[in-house]
Each structure stands twice: as C-alpha cells, then as structure tokens.
Amino acid sequence: MMQATPVPPRSILVIVLGFGVWAVAFVGLYAVNAIGCAFTWPSTVQRAVMIGLALVASGSMMAVAGWSIGHWRRAANGPRPAPGLARIGAMGSTAALAATILVFAPSLFASMCL
Amino acid sequence: MAESTAPDKLSPIRLHKALDRVWRTGPGWQRLSAVNHTVLGKRFMLTAFVFFAIGGVLAMLIRAQLATPDSAFVGPEIYNQLFSMHGTVMMFLFAIPMLEGLAIYLLPKMLGARDLAFPRLTAYGYWCYLFGGTIIVVSMLFGAAPNSGWFMYTPLSSQPYTPGINADIWLLGVTFVEISAVSAAVEITVSILKLRAPGMSLDRMPLFAWYMLVTALMMVFGFPPLILGSILLELERAFGLPFFDPTRGGDSLLWQHLFWLFGHPEVYIIFLPAAGALSTIIPVFAQRQIVGYHAIIAAIVALAFLSFGLWVHHMFTVGIPHLALAFFSAASALVAIPTAVQIFAWLATLAHGRPRFDIPMLYVTGFFLVFVIGGLTGVMLAMVPFDQQAHDSYFVVAHLHYVLVGGFVFPMLAAVYYWLPHITGRATVHRISVPAFWLIFVGFNLTFFMMHLTGLMGMPRRVYTYPSNFGWDSLNLLSSIGGFILTMGFALFAVDMILQFRFGRGFRRNIWKASTLDWAMPTRPPSYAFASLPSIDKRADAIDPDSLGPQLASGHGYLGFVRRGRMETLGVDMTTGKLEHVVVLPNSTYLPLISASLTGAMVLCLLFKLYPLAVIFALSTLASFFFWAARTGSKVDEGPIDVGCGERALPDTEVDGPTPWWAMVFALAANGTLFASLMFGTLYLWLVAPAWPPTEIASVDIFVVGAAVLLLAAAALMWWSNGLNLSGKAFMPALMATLLVDLGALVLFSIALFALPDPTSHAHIATVAALIGYGWLHAFGGLAFGFNALLKAHHGYVSPRRSLSLRLTRLWHDYTAITGVLGVGLILLMPSLIGMLEGVR
Predict the structure, then answer these.
(1) B774 located within any domain
(2) Domain parsing of chain A, residue ranges
(3) Total number of domains in chain B
(4) Measured between CB atoms, does A38 come within 8 Å of chain B?
C-alpha cells in the first residue's frame, strides 16, 4: 500500500510568504498615511513614521528573503517533498524584497498629503 | 465493512461501456441534469461565445453612433445603455465564464482526474450564470438595461440620479453571476490541490494548472469586495441606507475603492488563464519544454499579489494622499516585470526550440504584438502626471482594449484552434481561419490604435456624440471602419467553427504531438475522461500521451474498473501528490437546476421589490441545498479500499482533509474577505467621509456583546460535540445545545437591529446595522449547518471515522465566532473613534 507521507499544507505557503509580507506592509503603510493625513499629523512626524515603517518592512523582507533562500538550499541538498516549491519561494521572496524597496522608497522624498 | 476489493478486470471495450454507463449524461431532458465537467465546460464556453456575440453587436452600434460627428443614430439614453452593457457583457458574461469554461473542461483532463471535485456545484454555477446573464441581457429589450457604465460609479448609479431599475439589474444580475464565479473558483482551487494523478506533486503540475490555481485564488479574494459593494449599493437604493451618500456620512469614493479592489485584479484574472493557455500551446509548437518553469510560477504569484496593490491607479484623479499615489504608481509600473518574465520565457522557448507554424501560432503572434503595446501604454498610465492628462479619455479605452483583447481574446482564439480538435474529434480545416485572423488583427488595430490618438487629442470616453471642429472626425471614422472589419473577422471565425464541427476531418490521437495528459485520451473525450488514472513520475508537461493513452484506455492504471456503480476518482496529498483517498462523485441530478432556479426567482423578486416572496425563495434555495447534502456521504465505515495497481486508500468520507472540508476553508476565505471589506468600509467612512461625526451614536452594546458571547459559546459547544463524536460518545445533546445557543445569538442580533436608531439617518448607523446583519446571517447559517449535521447523524451518516458533517459545522461556528467578536469589537470601538474626530473635523 502506498503510504501518503503527511506533509502539512502550510508547506505550500512558502511560495506566497514573501509577497504575503509585502501585502501586509503595503496595507499598513497606506493606512497609516491615510490616518496621518486625516488627523493632520505634522509632516516631519508623519515622514518619520512612514520611513520607520518602510524600514521595518524592508528589514522583515530581508529576513524573509534570507530564510527563503536558505530553505531552498536545504531543500536542494536533502530529500524534501516537492523541492521546486522552495525554489519558487526563494524567487518570490527575492522579488518581494525588491518590490518592498521600490514601492516604499517614495516615503523618503514624496510629499505626504494633498 | 463494505466491499473493499476491486472488481474483476475488464477488456478495454467492456471497461469503456461500464464506465460510460455510470458517467454519461442521459439524452433529451436528462441533459438538464448534467454534472459532467466535459459537458458543462462546453456549455460555459458556448454560452460565453453567445454573450460575446451580443457584446460585439453592442460595440458595432457604439461605433455606428461615433462614426460621424453630431450623429443622431441613437440618443444619449440608448447610448448610455449600449456602452454600459457592452462593458458588462464582455467582462462579466464573456471573459470570466469563458476562462471558467476552459478550466472546467481542461483541468481534470490535464491533472489526470475523472472530474472536478464538486460536479453539482459546477452545474449550479452554470445555471446561475445563464439565468443572471439572461436577466441582464433581456433588460435591454425593455429599455431598462444598466446605463451608468460598467463600473457603476456612485452617485450617478444612486437612486436620485438613476431612479429606474436599470442599476438594480446590474447590481443583482452581476451579483448572481459573481456567485457562479466564486463557486467555480472554490471548486477549481480544491480540484487542483486535491484531485490529481498520484505522483503529480505541485512542482510537477502543468503550467496551465498553476495559472488556474493562482487565478482561482485571486477570484476567491478579489470578487468579495465587489459583492459587498453591490449589496451595500442595493441596500442604499432599495432602503435608503446611505453608504455612498456624502450628505449623510457616506462617500461615493467608497464604491470606487470596493469596485477597483475587485476591478484591477479582475484584469489579471482574465489575463492569467489566457497566459496559461499560451504556456501550454507555445512549447508544443516550439517542440521543446517551456523555458523558466519555476520563474514563471514565481512571476504569476508576484503578479497576483501586485495586482491587488494597484487598484488606486484607477483613482489617481479623485484626491488621494500624494505618498499613497506614489506607492500605487510604483506598484503599477512594477507589475510589468513579472508580466515581462513570462513574455521573455515564451520568446526564449520559441528561440530555443524548433518552431513549427500552424493556426494557433498565428493568434499567438497576434497576442505578442497587441498585448505588448497594451502593456506599454499601461506603464504610461501608471505614471500619475500622464494619467491625470489621459484620465477618462479614449486613450484609456484604447489601452484597456489592447490589454484585454491582446491578453485574453487573441490567446483564447489560439486556445480554441488548439483544443477544438480535442472537443470535436475533428481536425482543423484551414481554409478560412487565415483570412479570419487577418481581418481580426487588422480590424482590431485600426479600431483601437486610432483611439490612442483621439484620446490624446482630448476626446473623453462615454460621450454619445461630438462636434466636428475638434479634429476627431476622420480618426473616429477609421475606428468605426476598423470595428466593422473586426466584426467580419469574427463572423468568419464563427463560420470556421461551424464548418469544423460539421466537416472537419477525423484524426486518431494527439493531433499536435503535445506532451500533456489532456491528449492521453480518446478525442472526443469520453464522459469519464480516463478509463484508468495515470501515475506521474516526472513533470506532467513532459509525458508521452501516445504511449500512455492506450495503456490507460486498457485499464492499466488506477481505478480501471467500476465499483458498485459509483463515480470514483483519486484524491492526493496537495503538496507531494501522493495517493491519499478515493473520492466518490455524485451522479447526474436536477438539483443544481432547481437550486439555481430558486436563486434566480429570489433575484427577480428582489429586483421587483417583492421582498417577502424573496425571503421565501431564499429559504427554498437553502432547503434545496439540504437535499444536496442528503445525497452525499456513506452510512458505513469502509476502511481502505482497492484502487488498482496493488494499492489501497481510504474513501473521502474517512480522511482528515476531504475535498468538502477544503472547499469550506476557501469559501470561508472568500467570506472573510467580504467581512474585511465591510470592516474597511466602516473605518474608511469614519476616516474620510464628509458629514462626520454623526449626531447620533449607535448604542446597542448589551445586545451585541451578548450575541458575541453566545457565538463563542456555540463554537465551544461545537468543538465539544466534535470531540465527543471522535471518542465514540453521544454527541447529539451537545449538538442540540449548540443549535439553541445559535438561536439565542440570532434573537439578540435581531433585538439589536430593532434597537438601532434609524439606519437611513447616517452612514454610521447604517454600517453598524450592516455589521449586525452580517452576524445575524452567520448565526442563522450556524443553525442551518447544525440542523444539517443533526439530520445526517440521525440518518447514520456520522461515526467517529465519518465526522465530516460535524467538522464542517464546527468550522462554520469557529469562523462565525471570530468574525462575530471582531464585528462586535468594531461596533463597541466606534464611539471612541468618533470621539477622536472631535476637533479634527
């Protein structure tokens, strides 16, 4: 009888991990920008908050990308189920890191509100 | 214990006859009971092409009106209906159902399964689509068609400015069709993840399945915001709840957010399946495997996420904080990169292969040229300063047609020519498909390239006529001539299809020398798809159908037999593709047609404001679903059963993660997105809408807190019931207690609703009413699930090993408790949040 090795479905999540974090950061920064503008925060305060959040997002993404690349290497060197998923995850997380830096970079210089 | 060994082996002909007896759809009226994916996939596609033809005729009328300045061909009112219906029909009644139809037809065949996971849901989705589409299209005959544009912006679509039923037809009809789309998305997701040939791990799946998996998940998360928006707008139009009325605390921009949260991912939802078809077709004609398999999957995942971060680029001119504009602008430009990854992978596949030319490749070439132009103008429009100049001009009309026709219609035409031999069993006859292509290609570019120019010259979209002194005359005339050439091309295409169905020449197997599983079967495909199911030990786009097909047809695979007249296919571990369980599918039934008819009757009653009758039909629809549930499951514990090839597996009813459980997970994910959109809408109005703070605060704390506590208690009781069953103890008293607690929550939510101040007075009260209504509906749903579990248990369908009914009920109660607590939490928080507005507004 062919035994199904129990592989938790969460192992699939490695392919969406990077952009999942990006999406959370995107919603967070957009929401904080909207709140800051609605409550007329001083622009220096708002910029400091936005830059801080962008740095947190970028740092988190670096950690995620680093972990994903490590996970891919481990998967490539050992008998793991569906090793291609780890490779896709590493590519996705690296792309998500680039997206994080590019999309949130305007926090450094763009005007905040209307 | 039931029979667990496989029946004796049959000869290929006897096996075919035995399988066909079980799987086929009967003749005559029995066709209405079809649940087979091959039948329903074809119906979806054929119906979509009929709606495409209707949308095309509307486009011709638009171009006839705009061919000359100051034209009196149709008046402004009819013109408004024409362009609104053209967009609505093409987006909701052609593009999405067409991609669903292709996926429904192809996926089981590509994945090595005999059908999709929920055949009755496929049929229900089809009937909902047909009825909803018919309601929308028939409204034109009565001059009552939607007339506020395909994205129905408020306040134009609100009651004071569109007082008839035109907008209601859009809101209710499209929501009806969306039900079909979301049900198809859940079904496609679960089918791809669970119903594959043993051995087909995720990283061996054909790219088309990857594209469809990502697309279906995008539909699961992308459509609920629009469904919520449509419900809120209909509540405003029918009962005066002012979600979008800025004079009473609403905001018309909330509609734009909810619409484009759906609307922009929708573009990629349409493009990705077409790209999946391209990723299947191009390697076949390049005669080599696709280049960059893993990079393409990473690119489509990136595309899916990025597409949800672009919606505001449709709103660059409405007044959004500048920094947010920069975020959305950057994300909009960035989305070109994963798209380009795919395009370069296809080009590299062609460059490194030995390309041969045939009709599908003609349309693939057309795709490359048209879509790249559309993509480049998209990057132009992603830049805020350019967008502010070109916004709402014909430049945008040109861009969206280059993207959608280039990114969907051309690939779909390639797909039709590629898979038509599979569907009909007849080979392509090339006589008129070549001139048809050139007419379509030339006609399309003549029509829409001119619109870039008229747009840049300042012509706004949606004007029913224009004076002759702006220099737009000749360009518009050329556009109209191009439109009619394009129509001639599609007419020739239609003739070509009919000729191929009627006079195409027969062929034996695998006409294109493809290397995917869909060609490892007889063509036309038999009702059961595969006489036996394959085992996959390498990438599923690198198999040899010519040798595998005959082996499977002679029963040398899994399930090469019929057991007790059951329709069986295999379920696998979703990551590794290892054999996990046997799925027993339901036979043909009229239930989906009955349920969809009752749903349609409910929609019509809502449309004509016959609300008591609508409630009766809603309850009837629910009752019909009980009949669905009554016919599923097993009354005995079967244990592992023989699946052929010397292996055994448990039936679906006895495993931890059966397909219905996963369907519930994804359905709740869609539901959760709708709830999150409602929370977003509540907070958005508080933060942004004018006419805040409200003069009156909703204070129904005691009732909603009580209801939330009861929802938590019901979830705990359900958890306990499930545990009792798993340990073989009596669980019925705990289950009945759950029902009583659900009833209590329902009563408290009802009292809270009645205790609210007038919800038409201000959007704050209206949003609180919507949150309470959401909780009420879910408590009612908990009652329905609990009642169903009670019935199933009473009739012997529940045992410690067969606990699906209880686990589904538990899942629903867990979800209801979580959203109930969050919703009530937000209601309790609102007075404090409103207090923060004092001094700011």
Answers:
(1) yes
(2) 21-108
(3) 2
(4) yes
Nearest-neighbour CA in chain B from A47: distance (Å): 10
- Assess whether B832 and B696 both reside in one domain: yes
Distance between B238 CA and the closest CA of chain A, angstroms: 31
Provide the chain B residues 273-312 that lie in CB contact (below 8 A) with chain A: 293-295, 297-298, 301-302, 304-306, 308-309
* Greatest C-alpha distance within chain A: 68
Residue pointed to by tokens 């295409």: B493
User: For chain A, what percent of residues have pLDDT higher than 90?
Assistant: 75
In a domain, B477, yes or no: no
Partner residue opposite B576 with nearest CB, options A5, A95, A103: A5
Among residues B612, B630, B648, the one where a domain terminates is B630
Q: Which domain holds residue B624?
A: 590-630
Least confident of A1-10, A46-55, B737-746: A1-10
Beta carbons within 10 angstroms of residue B24's beta carbon: 16
pLDDT given for residue B177 in this prediction: 86
ipTM: 0.94
- B156 in a structural domain: no
- pLDDT of A80 reads 67
Residues B594, B717, single domain; the answer is: no
Q: Dihedral sign for Cα B564, B116, B815, B699, please.
A: negative
What predicted TM-score, i.e. pTM, was given to this entire model?
0.95
Cα dihedral B762/B764/B768/B773 (nearest 10) = 40
Regions of chain B where pLDDT drops below 50: 1-2
Chain A residues in contact with B342 (beta carbon < 8 A): none
Determine the pLDDT at residue B4: 59
Distance from CA of B840 to the nearest CA of A (A): 6
Burial B377-397 (b: 16+ CB within 10 A, else e): bbeebbbbeebeebbebbbbb
Q: Which residues of A touch B292 (CB under 8 A)?
A: none
Q: What is the pLDDT of residue B5?
A: 67
